[in-house]
Design brief:
Blueprint lengths: L3 E4 L9 H10 L5 E6 L11 H10 L4 E6 L7 H6 L4 E5 L6 H10 L3 E6 L17 E5 L13 H15 L5 E5 L4 H10 L3 E4 L1 H4 L4 H9 L2
Parallel strand pairs: 1-8, 2-3, 3-4, 4-5, 5-6, 6-7, 7-8
Organism: Fermentimonas caenicola
Keywords: Carbohydrate metabolism, Cobalt, Isomerase, Manganese, Metal-binding, Zinc
Pfam families: Ribul_P_3_epim
Amino acid sequence: MSTIVAPSLLSADFLNLERDIEMLNRSEADWIHLDIMDGVFVPNISFGFAVTNLLKKISKKPLDTHLMIVQPEKFIKEIAATGTTYMNVHFEACTHLHRVVQQIRDNGMKPAVTLNPHTPVSLLEDIIKDVDMVLLMSVNPGFGGQKFIENSVKKVTQLKDMILRQNASALIQVDGGVNLETGRKLVDAGADALVAGSFVFSSENPEETIRQLKAL
Protein backbone atom coordinates (compact mmCIF):
# COMPACT_ATOMS: atom_id res chain seq x y z
CA MET A 1 0.00 0.00 0.00
CA SER A 2 1.32 3.46 -0.88
CA THR A 3 1.84 6.03 1.85
CA ILE A 4 -1.20 8.16 2.69
CA VAL A 5 -0.37 11.84 2.10
CA ALA A 6 -2.37 14.60 3.80
CA PRO A 7 -1.12 18.07 2.79
CA SER A 8 -1.66 20.61 5.57
CA LEU A 9 -3.76 23.57 4.49
CA LEU A 10 -2.02 25.69 7.12
CA SER A 11 0.79 26.25 4.60
CA ALA A 12 -1.46 27.09 1.65
CA ASP A 13 -1.79 30.58 0.16
CA PHE A 14 -4.98 31.88 1.76
CA LEU A 15 -5.22 34.67 -0.80
CA ASN A 16 -5.48 31.93 -3.44
CA LEU A 17 -7.07 29.19 -1.40
CA GLU A 18 -9.43 27.92 -4.09
CA ARG A 19 -6.47 27.60 -6.48
CA ASP A 20 -4.55 25.54 -3.94
CA ILE A 21 -7.57 23.32 -3.20
CA GLU A 22 -8.00 22.69 -6.92
CA MET A 23 -4.32 21.68 -7.07
CA LEU A 24 -4.87 19.21 -4.24
CA ASN A 25 -7.96 17.87 -6.00
CA ARG A 26 -5.86 17.15 -9.10
CA SER A 27 -2.99 15.68 -7.12
CA GLU A 28 -2.49 12.21 -5.67
CA ALA A 29 -3.08 13.55 -2.14
CA ASP A 30 -5.33 11.27 -0.13
CA TRP A 31 -6.70 13.72 2.44
CA ILE A 32 -6.59 17.43 3.24
CA HIS A 33 -5.28 18.11 6.75
CA LEU A 34 -6.89 21.02 8.61
CA ASP A 35 -5.19 22.53 11.67
CA ILE A 36 -7.65 24.44 13.83
CA MET A 37 -5.91 26.43 16.61
CA ASP A 38 -7.39 28.53 19.39
CA GLY A 39 -4.41 30.52 20.70
CA VAL A 40 -4.85 28.81 24.09
CA PHE A 41 -3.87 25.16 23.69
CA VAL A 42 -1.21 26.27 21.21
CA PRO A 43 0.35 29.75 20.83
CA ASN A 44 -1.25 30.50 17.48
CA ILE A 45 -4.65 31.04 15.84
CA SER A 46 -5.37 29.56 12.41
CA PHE A 47 -8.85 29.39 10.89
CA GLY A 48 -12.32 28.34 11.93
CA PHE A 49 -15.63 27.13 10.62
CA ALA A 50 -16.05 29.97 8.11
CA VAL A 51 -13.19 28.38 6.16
CA THR A 52 -13.92 24.72 6.84
CA ASN A 53 -17.56 25.03 5.82
CA LEU A 54 -16.46 26.39 2.44
CA LEU A 55 -13.98 23.57 1.93
CA LYS A 56 -16.64 20.87 1.84
CA LYS A 57 -18.09 22.60 -1.23
CA ILE A 58 -14.88 22.52 -3.28
CA SER A 59 -12.71 19.75 -1.84
CA LYS A 60 -12.85 16.36 -3.54
CA LYS A 61 -10.59 14.85 -0.87
CA PRO A 62 -11.61 13.62 2.59
CA LEU A 63 -11.00 16.18 5.33
CA ASP A 64 -8.69 15.27 8.23
CA THR A 65 -9.39 17.84 10.94
CA HIS A 66 -6.87 18.33 13.76
CA LEU A 67 -8.18 20.35 16.70
CA MET A 68 -5.36 22.02 18.63
CA ILE A 69 -7.81 23.54 21.06
CA VAL A 70 -9.02 23.23 24.65
CA GLN A 71 -12.29 21.34 25.13
CA PRO A 72 -12.53 19.99 21.57
CA GLU A 73 -15.61 18.00 22.59
CA LYS A 74 -17.61 21.25 22.51
CA PHE A 75 -17.32 21.40 18.72
CA ILE A 76 -17.93 17.80 17.64
CA LYS A 77 -21.24 18.56 15.91
CA GLU A 78 -19.78 21.61 14.13
CA ILE A 79 -16.85 19.55 12.87
CA ALA A 80 -19.19 16.79 11.70
CA ALA A 81 -21.20 19.40 9.77
CA THR A 82 -18.09 20.30 7.74
CA GLY A 83 -18.05 16.79 6.26
CA THR A 84 -14.87 15.81 8.11
CA THR A 85 -13.84 12.15 7.86
CA TYR A 86 -11.21 12.04 10.63
CA MET A 87 -11.52 14.20 13.75
CA ASN A 88 -8.24 14.48 15.66
CA VAL A 89 -8.28 15.55 19.32
CA HIS A 90 -5.27 15.91 21.59
CA PHE A 91 -4.75 13.43 24.40
CA GLU A 92 -3.48 16.36 26.46
CA ALA A 93 -6.72 18.35 25.94
CA CYS A 94 -9.24 15.63 26.83
CA THR A 95 -9.88 14.79 30.47
CA HIS A 96 -12.44 12.15 29.44
CA LEU A 97 -10.87 10.88 26.22
CA HIS A 98 -12.89 7.67 25.91
CA ARG A 99 -16.15 9.64 26.07
CA VAL A 100 -14.93 12.11 23.44
CA VAL A 101 -13.87 9.27 21.13
CA GLN A 102 -17.33 7.70 21.38
CA GLN A 103 -19.02 11.05 20.72
CA ILE A 104 -16.93 11.55 17.59
CA ARG A 105 -17.91 8.12 16.31
CA ASP A 106 -21.57 8.67 17.23
CA ASN A 107 -21.50 11.78 15.03
CA GLY A 108 -20.41 9.82 11.97
CA MET A 109 -16.67 10.57 12.00
CA LYS A 110 -13.59 8.44 12.55
CA PRO A 111 -11.97 9.29 15.90
CA ALA A 112 -8.26 10.01 16.07
CA VAL A 113 -6.08 11.00 19.00
CA THR A 114 -3.00 13.23 18.80
CA LEU A 115 0.10 13.15 21.01
CA ASN A 116 2.46 16.07 21.55
CA PRO A 117 6.20 15.32 21.21
CA HIS A 118 6.68 14.96 24.98
CA THR A 119 3.75 12.58 25.51
CA PRO A 120 4.72 8.87 25.60
CA VAL A 121 2.78 6.47 23.38
CA SER A 122 2.38 4.09 26.34
CA LEU A 123 -0.47 6.31 27.57
CA LEU A 124 -2.60 5.00 24.68
CA GLU A 125 -2.61 1.39 25.89
CA ASP A 126 -6.22 1.63 27.13
CA ILE A 127 -7.64 3.53 24.14
CA ILE A 128 -5.74 2.22 21.10
CA LYS A 129 -8.45 -0.26 20.06
CA ASP A 130 -11.12 2.47 20.20
CA VAL A 131 -9.53 4.91 17.73
CA ASP A 132 -9.10 4.77 13.98
CA MET A 133 -5.86 6.74 13.94
CA VAL A 134 -3.10 8.15 16.14
CA LEU A 135 -1.37 11.36 15.08
CA LEU A 136 2.13 11.78 16.45
CA MET A 137 3.39 15.37 16.44
CA SER A 138 7.02 15.43 15.33
CA VAL A 139 7.31 19.16 16.09
CA ASN A 140 5.76 21.22 18.88
CA PRO A 141 2.27 22.11 17.61
CA GLY A 142 1.28 25.62 16.66
CA PHE A 143 3.47 26.66 13.74
CA GLY A 144 4.50 25.24 10.38
CA GLY A 145 8.04 24.92 9.08
CA GLN A 146 9.66 23.63 12.28
CA LYS A 147 12.58 21.23 12.55
CA PHE A 148 11.77 17.52 12.79
CA ILE A 149 12.21 15.93 16.24
CA GLU A 150 14.24 12.75 15.62
CA ASN A 151 12.81 10.90 18.62
CA SER A 152 9.54 10.73 16.69
CA VAL A 153 10.87 7.79 14.67
CA LYS A 154 11.29 5.74 17.86
CA LYS A 155 7.77 6.69 18.94
CA VAL A 156 6.38 5.39 15.65
CA THR A 157 8.12 2.06 16.25
CA GLN A 158 6.76 1.88 19.80
CA LEU A 159 3.26 2.71 18.65
CA LYS A 160 3.39 0.15 15.84
CA ASP A 161 4.43 -2.52 18.34
CA MET A 162 1.48 -1.59 20.58
CA ILE A 163 -1.00 -1.76 17.68
CA LEU A 164 0.25 -5.17 16.59
CA ARG A 165 0.40 -6.52 20.14
CA GLN A 166 -3.21 -5.52 20.82
CA ASN A 167 -4.43 -6.54 17.37
CA ALA A 168 -5.70 -2.98 16.88
CA SER A 169 -6.36 -1.38 13.50
CA ALA A 170 -5.41 2.27 14.14
CA LEU A 171 -3.43 4.05 11.45
CA ILE A 172 -0.26 5.92 12.42
CA GLN A 173 -0.04 9.49 11.14
CA VAL A 174 2.90 11.88 11.67
CA ASP A 175 2.88 15.67 11.37
CA GLY A 176 5.81 18.08 11.53
CA GLY A 177 9.04 18.53 9.60
CA VAL A 178 8.04 15.90 7.05
CA ASN A 179 10.09 15.78 3.85
CA LEU A 180 11.43 12.96 1.69
CA GLU A 181 14.26 12.18 4.12
CA THR A 182 12.25 12.21 7.36
CA GLY A 183 9.26 10.70 5.61
CA ARG A 184 11.35 7.70 4.56
CA LYS A 185 12.44 7.12 8.16
CA LEU A 186 8.87 7.37 9.42
CA VAL A 187 7.43 5.00 6.84
CA ASP A 188 10.20 2.48 7.49
CA ALA A 189 9.33 2.68 11.21
CA GLY A 190 5.66 1.92 10.53
CA ALA A 191 3.89 5.20 9.72
CA ASP A 192 0.87 4.92 7.44
CA ALA A 193 0.10 8.60 6.80
CA LEU A 194 2.26 11.70 6.47
CA VAL A 195 1.13 15.30 6.96
CA ALA A 196 3.25 17.77 4.99
CA GLY A 197 2.67 21.50 4.85
CA SER A 198 5.50 23.81 3.87
CA PHE A 199 7.36 20.97 2.11
CA VAL A 200 4.44 20.61 -0.30
CA PHE A 201 3.23 24.17 -0.74
CA SER A 202 6.71 25.73 -0.91
CA SER A 203 7.95 23.33 -3.57
CA GLU A 204 8.21 24.34 -7.23
CA ASN A 205 5.91 21.48 -8.21
CA PRO A 206 3.57 20.57 -5.32
CA GLU A 207 1.81 17.82 -7.25
CA GLU A 208 5.13 16.10 -7.97
CA THR A 209 6.19 16.52 -4.34
CA ILE A 210 2.98 14.81 -3.22
CA ARG A 211 3.62 11.98 -5.69
CA GLN A 212 7.13 11.50 -4.30
CA LEU A 213 5.82 11.35 -0.74
CA LYS A 214 3.25 8.74 -1.72
CA ALA A 215 6.03 6.63 -3.23
CA LEU A 216 7.93 6.37 0.07
